[in-house]
Specification:
The chain is α+β, with helices and mostly antiparallel strands. The chain is built from 13 helices and 12 strands.
């Protein structure tokens, strides 16, 4: 067969490698028309570099993180996808476990590549598969479900927060999706986490965390759950004219709730108060920022009061 330059196997391989972050599999090379002898020749002259059995780096042997992920997926065969902590790192909702790459592969796979933690999966459904760029990866919902089987409570809540912040999957969508995974590992933990953020018992946790920040900042204890200007407020300092709301994610995520929050803040401002609003995630995970902001506003109001 005569190939044009645009159609040549070599050109196709280079384009594929570019999409796959520099790596290709032996099967892909053969599918593009390269023979076993051609592959061996390119290995000998440094056009290909053997990374692990059946997986090659094209051109320079150095790989970035995405290239290492892609190589691990190719090494695990058809149907393999990045999953668990590695998927969380790709979606930017959790840290990567640097010594291992997590890959989910069909139950029939028999590959055991080094430094790859293979999760044998035969029940994954279409909705469980996603793609970030060219990298096959578990969907955000499946990734969170998998993380619920391996992470501690704080890290899992942080991952759920990040998935919502990045608009990958919101708490309500996640809760609804869990109905399709009844009986699977991780479902119970995610439901319990979402329940803590849904029902009013979340208020006590937020209150406890926030009051700890108040004490650390050296401020006087505020009044809690008072009614001002027709609204119940979480914390207030009447002597300073300061009102603070701590928003649970589920309460304040919809347009209707956000509109009500604006009306609330506007009512307080019109009455001469200073409203501040912090999210649950900020109170829990950005304590230094919350404490510094609260202290700066309180000190400014104290100066204005005493002037």
């Amino acid at each position: 067969m005569v190939w044009s330059k645009a159609q040549s196997p070599v050109g196709s391989v280079w384009r594929l490698a570019e999409r796959q972050h520099g790596v290709v599999s032996r099967r892909q090379l053969l599918d593009f028309g390269l023979s076993g002898r051609s592959i061996e020749h390119r290995l000998a002259i440094g056009r290909l570099h053997l990374l692990r059995r059946g997986v090659y780096v094209v051109g320079r042997p150095e790989l970035n993180r995405e290239g290492r992920w892609m190589a691990a997926i190719l090494a695990c065969g058809d149907g393999a996808v990045l999953s668990h902590r590695s998927a969380a790192a790709l979606w930017e909702i959790g840290p990567e476990e640097e010594s291992w790459i997590d890959v989910s592969a069909p139950f029939s796979s028999r590959n055991h590549p080094p430094e790859i933690r293979v999760h044998r999966r035969y029940g994954l459904r279409r909705a469980d598969f996603g793609r970030s760029g060219s990298i096959p990866v578990t969907s955000p919902v499946r990734t969170l479900l998998d993380l619920a089987t391996v992470l501690g409570s704080d890290d899992l809540e942080r991952a759920v927060n990040e998935a919502d912040r990045l608009n990958l999957v919101g708490p309500e969508e996640l809760r609804n999706a869990l109905g399709g995974y009844r009986g699977e590992r991780g479902v119970k933990r995610l439901r319990e986490l979402l329940d803590r953020r849904t029902f009013r018992r979340t208020d006590s946790e937020l209150e406890r965390l926030f009051l700890r920040l108040v004490d650390d900042a050296g401020l006087s204890r505020p009044l809690t759950r008072q009614f001002l200007n027709g609204f119940r407020v979480d914390f207030s300092w009447p002597d300073l004219g300061l009102v603070v709301e701590t928003d649970g994610l589920r309460y304040h995520g919809t347009p209707a709730q956000q509109a009500r929050d604006r009306l609330r803040d506007q009512a307080h401002t019109a009455a001469g108060l200073t409203p501040l609003r912090f999210t649950h995630a900020q109170v829990r995970f950005e304590a230094d920022h919350v404490r510094a902001t609260l202290l700066a506003v309180a000190r400014r109001l104290e100066r204005a009061r005493d002037a």
